[in-house]
Design a protein that fits this description.
The complex is a heterodimer. By secondary structure, chain A is mainly α. In chain A, about 85% of the residues lie in helices and about 0% in strands. The mean pLDDT of chain A is about 85. Chain B is built from nine helices and no strands. Classes of the chains: A mainly alpha, B mainly alpha.
């Protein structure tokens, strides 16, 4: 048989393992391997090498996963930004809210006095009083939400 | 919610979202799920159990640190192996700075067959490990990714950050070298 036939067979043996070959190529290869002892040995050695590669076991070091999980856990804890504690924010919010409620009559009296002094209509005063309460709370909620997202995303 | 089938995290996007949140439960699950494959890959890459163990842990720390970079488009294991590989190359470069001259084909491994013998259970395994240890690291790596990890050519290219034709060329040369190595060793499976 000419050399290029064997070269083609060896090329197909490798190609079918790496990227696959067409049905006609496979058919040609099988026919050739049936007739050529040398190429059949190459095919067998290659397949055996791959089988060996697939079958060799590797022993895992003891507790590898749990030791790694512990290291990852410790790292996760250390990645929390210093000084951030969810409960401190809630306490601060609660205090602000209580102070706000306690001071509400006083603030309203101040608004009334200013309205009377400047001749501002009652509706505008009520609106301003609402904003006085609502805007800081909205800003605080916005900051809190952004901060929470920043921390979660790292 | 993490989709779990027999304790396995399956959904790529869910894994990506969990990594962004640094979900400890998900990380625990992933470490358990991929421990064997990652350790085996690092072991063959470095040829040393201790080094592979250190790199294994460092890889997961890096996964935690850079979890946001995983977008769920590729398989998680290709991203994981790429991280492990980067760390192995960094380590090798720290040990032998001259390998910086050939960043495409770093000599990833101390080519000492004895290092492979240490982690083999039986005689046949020792022979297989020895044969593998004699292969060039760049060939051994693609062979392992292809035939042990069953990654596609594109996935291997992604791990290696190399073009697919380069991966193919290495696979063909590696296969030839492997066949000769095993043929010369003369042992049957």
């Amino acid at each position: 048989m000419p050399d290029d036939v064997h070269a083609r067979a060896k090329d197909l043996i490798a190609r079918q393992l790496v990227e696959g070959i067409s049905a006609s190529e496979r058919e040609w290869l099988e026919r050739h391997l049936g007739a050529c002892r040398e190429c059949a040995e190459v095919a067998e050695t290659t397949e055996q090498a791959i089988r060996n590669l697939r079958s060799i076991p590797v022993a895992l070091p003891p507790d590898l996963a749990s030791r790694t999980q512990f290291r990852v856990y410790v790292r996760t804890q250390s990645m929390q930004p210093a000084g951030y504690h969810g409960w401190t924010l809630w306490v601060a919010f609660a205090l602000c809210w209580m102070l706000g409620v306690a001071s509400a009559p006083l603030v309203w009296r101040g608004f009334e006095w200013f309205g009377h002094f400047a001749g501002v209509p009652s509706l505008v005063l009520k609106l301003a009083f609402g904003l006085w309460w609502g805007v800081p709370a909205a800003i605080a909620a916005g900051i809190w939400t952004l901060e929470k997202r920043r921390i979660e995303e790292g | 919610m993490i989709l779990r089938f027999s304790g396995v995290a399956e959904d790529r996007e869910t894994v990506a979202a969990g990594l962004r949140r640094r979900d400890p439960e998900l990380l625990d699950l992933l470490i358990e799920q991929y421990q064997y494959r990652l350790f085996r890959y690092l072991l063959y890459l470095t040829g040393s159990r201790e080094t592979a163990e250190d790199l294994f842990q460092e890889t997961w720390i890096r996964v935690l640190d850079r979890g946001r970079q995983y977008d769920g488009k590729a398989k998680f294991e290709t991203w994981l192996f790429a991280i492990g590989r980067h760390l192995a190359i960094d380590l090798q470069r720290r040990k032998t700075p001259q390998s910086l001259d050939s960043p495409d084909e770093p000599d990833l491994i101390a080519q000492e067959p004895s290092a492979f013998e240490q982690f083999s259970a039986g005689e046949r395994e020792a022979q297989v490990h020895q044969s593998l240890g004699r292969l060039k690291a760049v060939y051994r790596e693609v062979l392992l990714l292809r035939f042990q990890e069953d990654l596609t050519l594109e996935e291997i290219a992604s791990v290696l950050e190399a073009p697919v034709p380069t991966v193919k060329a290495r696979l063909y040369r590696g296969l030839e070298a492997l066949r000769k190595e095993f043929g010369e060793a003369g042992y049957a499976g």
